[in-house]
């Protein structure tokens, strides 16, 4: 077997995953829902449900009809319009980011955050006084020593992996990784408290030295809890690493970055090709004879696979992840809206026009939400922060049935692009009129070029997107998103567990935008692009794609987003 990869545990990373996120958005709007079993519906699926519903036997990605059977008094709310989830997600992200030095916060999907708090922890370790550990003070601001909270530096907040006594017989050495993680657990608890008391959302937290480990250890105790992965991380003469047994116990597919396809290949390698979807753990793969980066590259590499996949997965199996916390762009790279359609729903030009107009309306609404400068008090004069240059229409035709009547799933989209007409930026016209004009004057002709036949297409999906965004010059987006003085005053009353000192003014740290952007010509747009199928379900990350549904389940006919497909299949497997 190859040597274990080298560790580098200099960073301290926190992970936050909001509890039953979509359901919580409804609960925050209507707190009476909290005590009821609540499920959020998209198409015929429960995309999430609150923990009261989970106590009564409901699950994420269950069919609505099954949820009603298992829990007849379940309250079902529609969650197909993602606007409120997106807004809540942005709001929580900005709240948390306002505390983190350097704005080192990455959004993963709608409801997860990775925070690089190394600098904050190093600074606070440097200020520890060994004689007054139980009455330490966490500094949230380097310039103002009064801003922060009191904490006991002899105890972890929340749970640990492996579990430990709350009070140490001997507090950890101040210079140790354990001490840093202990302090990080207090920051984690503080941020979760702020989220709950300011916004009403609970989250589950993890603390470790990488995005991978912080995320995985965070999910050890859900909901509304947090877990810190305790050192040692490396095996030494004194003690064995905690990381290896922690990683080893996970099913291979539960590991971030090892999606369904890679997991399938690894399972086939370990158990043989015909053993179905037998459970295989990280340990099974790690200890497989001859295992190492070379065998992994041979098993997982090939056309379309990222370069160096063998080494990356080898590192992952050992809990080694050196990827940086990437700060989110404030502007999306593209905006795209799509919907899926059952058989026969799009078989004439009138129905295509009608559906395209619905998509176009959502698209323009999203452009106004995401790309307009909201600091302008008169909405009619709001400035565009970026101008997309390209309009793209994509469709996904269904495969015709084979001779035996079986219809195979076609994952390929075909698309056509054209320059985006500038009238879409007119703020004095209403969205309905703009959408109508966009479809009549532009999108329909793109559609006819994609599908020259007069009728008879059988499309399972249509998507309209604006891409190739060019940021506007002279953007002044350093607006303060929050009044931190007010926040600290509020905390005095709401956060009983955390001592809060003087109020202070502080602005949200936004990434400065490039102040001068050269005029970029409209690019050459190819007439035809045949897009490869996306690497479905390997990772689920919130892109700029807004999908209301994507694939049909062959067993029950339910339509669902493509990322839900695998979990849905597993659901059927359990049911059987
Ligand atoms: P998750 O974090 O997987 O779920 P959750 O936050 O609802 O529940 P948990 O407490 O277990 O973390 O996903 C976040 C949101 O994304 C979820 O509220 C609904 C949505 N979602 C989908 O739209 N499709 C999916 O397949 C999944 C898994 C989630
Ligand atoms: Mg969640």
Structural account:
- The chain is an alpha+beta fold.
- The protein has four domains: 13-248, Alpha-Beta Plaits (2-Layer Sandwich); 252-317, no CATH class; 335-471, DNA polymerase, Y-family, little finger domain (Dna Ligase, domain 1, 2-Layer Sandwich); 519-575, no CATH class.
- 31% of the residues lie in helices and 17% in strands.
- The protein has 16 helices and 20 strands.
- The strands form five sheets. It has a six-stranded mixed β-sheet. It has a six-stranded mixed β-sheet with strand order 17-15-14-16-13-18, with helices on one face.
- Strand 8 and strand 9 form a beta hairpin.
- Helix 5 packs across helix 6.
- The longest helix has 23 residues, at 177-199.
- The radius of gyration is 26 Å and the shape is globular.
- The two termini are 39 Å apart.
- The model is unreliable at 474-550 (pLDDT under 50).
- The protein binds thymidine-5'-triphosphate (TTP) and magnesium ion.
């Amino acid at each position: 077997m190859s040597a274990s990869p080298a560790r580098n545990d200099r960073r301290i990373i926190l992970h936050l995953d909001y509890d039953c996120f979509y359901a919580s958005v409804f609960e925050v709007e209507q707190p009476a829902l909290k005590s009821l079993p609540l499920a959020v519906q998209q198409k015929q699926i429960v995309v999430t449900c609150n923990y009261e519903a989970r106590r009564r036997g409901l699950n994420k990605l269950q069919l609505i009809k099954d949820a009603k059977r298992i829990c007849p008094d379940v309250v079902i709310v529609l969650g197909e319009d993602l606007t409120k989830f997106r807004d809540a997600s942005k709001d929580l992200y900005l709240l948390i980011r306002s505390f983190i030095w350097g704005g080192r916060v990455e959004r993963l999907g709608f409801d997860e955050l990775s925070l690089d708090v190394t600098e904050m922890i190093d600074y606070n370790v440097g200020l520890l006084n060994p004689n007054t550990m139980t009455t330490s003070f966490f500094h949230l601001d380097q310039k103002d020593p009064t801003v922060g909270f009191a904490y006991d530096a002899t105890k972890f907040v929340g749970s640990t992996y492996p579990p430990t006594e709350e009070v140490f017989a001997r507090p950890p050495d101040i210079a140790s990784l354990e001490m840093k993680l202990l302090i990080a657990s207090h920051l984690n608890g503080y941020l979760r408290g702020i989220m709950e008391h300011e916004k009403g959302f609970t989250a589950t937290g993890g603390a470790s030295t990488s995005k991978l480990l912080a995320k995985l250890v965070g999910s050890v105790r859900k909901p509304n809890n947090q877990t810190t992965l305790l050192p040692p991380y490396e095996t030494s003469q004194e003690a064995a690493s905690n990381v290896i047994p922690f990683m080893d116990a996970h099913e291979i597919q539960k590991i971030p970055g090892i999606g369904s396809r890679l997991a399938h290949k690894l399972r086939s390698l370990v158990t043989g090709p015909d053993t179905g979807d037998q459970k295989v753990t990280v340990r099974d793969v790690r200890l497989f004879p001859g295992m190492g980066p070379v065998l992994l590259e041979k098993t997982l590499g090939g056309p379309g696979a990222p370069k160096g996949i063998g080494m990356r997965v080898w590192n992952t199996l050992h809990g080694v992840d050196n990827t940086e916390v990437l700060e989110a762009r404030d502007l999306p790279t593209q905006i795209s809206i799509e919907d899926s359609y059952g058989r026969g729903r799009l078989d004439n030009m009138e129905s295509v026009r009608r559906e395209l107009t619905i998509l176009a309306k959502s698209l323009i609404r999203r452009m106004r939400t995401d790309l307009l400068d909201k600091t302008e008090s008169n909405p009619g004069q709001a400035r565009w922060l970026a101008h997309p240059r390209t309009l793209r229409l994509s469709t996904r035709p269904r495969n015709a049935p084979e001779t035996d009547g079986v219809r195979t799933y076609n994952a390929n989209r075909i698309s056509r692009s054209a320059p985006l007409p500038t009238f879409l930026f007119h703020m004095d016209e209403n969205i309905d009129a703009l959408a109508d004009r966009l479809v009549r004057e532009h999108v329909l002709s793109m559609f006819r070029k994609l599908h020259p036949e007069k009728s008879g297409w059988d499309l399972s999906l249509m998507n309209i997107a604006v891409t190739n965004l060019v940021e506007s010059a002279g953007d002044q987006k350093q607006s303060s998103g929050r009044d931190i003085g007010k926040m600290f005053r509020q905390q005095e009353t709401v956060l009983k567990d955390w001592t809060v000192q003087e109020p202070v003014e502080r602005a949200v740290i936004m990434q400065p935008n490039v102040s001068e952007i050269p005029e970029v010509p409209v690019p050459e747009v190819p007439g035809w692009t045949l897009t490869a199928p996306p690497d479905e379900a390997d990772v689920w990350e919130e892109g700029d794609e807004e999908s209301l549904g994507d694939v049909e389940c062959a067993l029950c006919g339910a339509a669902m987003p493509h990322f839900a497909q695998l979990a849905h299949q597993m659901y059927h497997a359990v049911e059987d």
